[in-house]
Amino acid sequence: MVRSSTFATAGIGMARGQQVVLAPDVRIEPLIRQWAAWLMTLDPVNAAMYLVGRQRPILQSFLRHPDRHVAAAKDDRTAGGLFANLSAQQGGNVQRWLDDGEVADSSTLAVGAALLDLVKSGGGSAASVLSGGVERVHDLAGGESSQSIRLLRPVLQRSIEPGMESVAVWPGVARPHFLNTPRLTDDQRLLHVDSAFDSDQLGELLRLRHSPAPIEVALAALGLDRVGDHPAVAALLRPVEAPAVEGEHIAQTCIDFLGHCSVLFRDSGTKLLADPITPPVQDHVGLPQRLDAVLISHGHPDHLVAEALLALRDRIDLALVPATRSDSFADPSLRDCLLRLGIRNVVELRPYDQVAVRSATVTALPFQGEHGGLDIGGKTTWHIRMSTTTLILAADCACQEPAAFDGVADQFGAVDILLTAMEPRGALARWLYGPLVGRSGIQDRLDGADADAVLRLAAAVGARQVGIYGCDGPKDAGHLFGRPAPQGGDERTLDTSEREVDRLRRLAAAHKLPIFTLDRPGRITPPPGER
Q: Are strands 35-36 and 319-322 parallel, antiparallel or unpaired?
């Protein structure tokens, strides 16, 4: 039972029984071992490698040099780097996190360390702790003497603790980068709720986004019947003065850009959402209460966003993801990660697989580049044919080999709009993949699309119009993106992107190909004329 004093201390000014919802800017961030959940930590095997190779070393470095980390976190040139964005006063809690992990995750640490040694040795002797969990296979591309490692993830998982699940509830404040800073329980910027992803408590908390509940129920969902009041509570809840308004009803084909690479499609009652990046509370159109399908292009943390998927999971009838090579280090199963987040119906597609979703037909096409040259199958370009419009969502595809897209228009339908991101100078590849690769085997930067790649793809699929998206993420999603470039000189990424878009416009004009950019949420209008 929630104590009556909680109401006064929280400063909410609500009577017992008052109906409340979460404030619109509240974010519920899923955590594993108090770190933000993403593809590489939702998978237990990869999580073991990141625990040993990334998370613990960052915090051990913080304890040795707290002042350096504090200074780096305040510097725009290094704020998104591998420096914990914590205060020096949190050293005691950091030490407790490290000490507790020695006990709770002892076997996970052993497996993670053994896998890291295996990666660094390039396929040398495997520790006994990995017995039965790895298989050496000949790498045909490297010749008879070349070997690579095939992971048997179900076997390895027998020796791995999956990691404690919880959520951080943020009251509309900027968050530290997800790769460098844990969400520790003593952080007064957030409310930590110790709740598994499949728990009834978390389900109740997620429903508070759209379904009012008595304040007693809301406080219990926030864990306040157990841990007492918290300074952030007053910013988390809002009284309900009027019933929620449903999103507009759309009968015809309608395409809405929601930010970054997230697009909502509605067509004759069919509702598809691609790469959701933020929870459904601040979009300009009002997301529908049911989604026929969610489409995930690849596993990078700005496309497979655990927080957004967790918030949407009760609305999703079907999730479509690219099939992966789950036996490799860098290509864990996207399907398994979505299942762990509580999405029940997840279907994997390989290139050129096709599925009907009510009035729409969705086809998985190849996706080239973007992953630092690693052999990753978990990426796809989506071809979506609706009753009056056909689109391709290329996300970060670099289209290095346009022949892979030959015949797309003839086989799957003429392409009215190609939506693609442009990032001529990609993020540092080792930010995401560092613990999974040895000294070689990965490029310095992710290989995104430039103007030439966009034109190659547009020509290959016969696109009538090209839209550039993904240039900037939503203002509250900065914790997902890479380290800011140094301010000044030629290193400014924004200037580089703008120059490349200008070059694309000049090149496209010669082919009479219309180009538009999506720098803010809004409706996308298909080009006029015959299809």
A: unpaired
Q: What is the 3-state secondary structure (H, E, C) of 315-337?
A: HECCEEEECCCCCCCCCCCHHHH
pLDDT per position as a tens digit, 488-514: 444 444 456 788 889 999 999 999 999
* Chain centroid to CA 144: 38
Over residues 242-267, the pLDDT tens digits come to 544 555 555 567 899 988 999 999 99
User: Residue 246 CA to chain centroid, in angstroms?
Assistant: 27
Residue 485: is its pLDDT beyond 80? Answer: no
Of 292, 289, 290, 287, give the one whose Cα is nearest residue 276. 287
Confirm if 469 and 290 have CB atoms less than 8 A apart.
no
Q: Is the dihedral of CA 295, 299, 303, 308 positive or negative?
A: positive
- Taking the CB of residue 345, how many other CB atoms lie within 10 A of it? 12
DSSP class of residue 250 equals -
The C-alpha atoms of residue 395 and residue 371 are separated, in whole angstroms, by 13
302 close to 480: Cβ distance less than 8 angstroms: yes
- Say how far apart CA 235 and CA 450 lie, in whole Å: 43
CA distances from 178 to 88, 103, 175, 381 (A): 19, 24, 8, 26
Asked if residues 270 and 292 have their Cβ atoms less than 8 Å apart, the reply is yes
Residue 531 pLDDT grade (very low, low, confident, very high; cuts 50, 70, 90): very low
DSSP 8-state code for residue 447: -
Give percent above pLDDT 70 in the chain.
Answer: 85
- Alpha carbon distance 310, 84 (integer Å): 25
Q: What is the DSSP string of 34-59?
A: TEE--HHHHSHHHHHHHIIIIIHHHH
User: What is the tens place of the pLDDT at every residue in 367-411?
Assistant: 998 888 888 999 999 999 998 899 999 999 999 899 999 888 888
CA proximity to 315, closest of 376, 246, 267: 246
- E strand segments, 107-157: 134-138, 147-151
Helix (H) or strand (E) holding 120: helix 106-121
Q: Is 527 helix (H, G, I), strand (E, B) or coil?
A: coil
C-alpha 513/C-alpha 510 separation (Å) is: 8
